Amino acid sequence: MTARSKESGLKYATNILQDQCQSVLIFWLGFRPLKMEELTELLSDVPKEELVSKLHALQNLRVVNPICDKADCYSLTEDGDQLRRLMISVSVWGVQQQDENADRQSMFVIEPELDASIKDLVKYR
Q1: Which has fewest Cβ within 10 Å: 22, 34, 48, 102?
Q2: Tens digit of each residue's pLDDT (9 = 90 or more) over 50-101
Q3: CA dihedral over 98, 86, 8, 20, signed as positive or negative
Q4: Is the pTM value of this prediction over 0.85?
């Protein structure tokens, strides 16, 4: 039996999301499974060693599937997908609040299509 952590659920989630690289990985992997080459293209400012380390951390947290699929792609688990949807909702809410506080009209938030090519995803970045 494992000892229960006294850390709150909110703290647990924010620890994951405060890591910018992990948040960005969750965002991109929510579109579709991606190969390491595609992830390195999308996160071109992150060294590959750090990217691998962050993927392993997310795998240990059960956010990213622990093994790649047959096409050698990384993907989100069901829990990872739920976290991503919450992350997107909070992000949209934050933008709307920033705009309201600055007396600006909020822009629509548009994501690329789920079947977007890596070229289109890089443009969106």
Answers
A1: 102
A2: 999 999 999 999 999 999 888 999 999 999 999 999 998 888 888 888 877 7
A3: negative
A4: no
Q: In this structure, are residues 25 and 54 in contact, taking their beta carbons and an 8 Å threshold?
A: yes
Q: How far apart are CA 56 and CA 42, in angstroms?
A: 18
Q: Which amino acid belongs to residue 26?
A: I
- Please give the Cα distance from 44 to 3 (Å, whole number): 39
Consecutive H or E run containing 34 = strand 34-35
Question: How far is it, in rounded angstroms, from Cα 89 to Cα 71?
Answer: 30
Q: Is the torsion defined by CA of 101, 102, 107, 109 positive or negative? A: negative
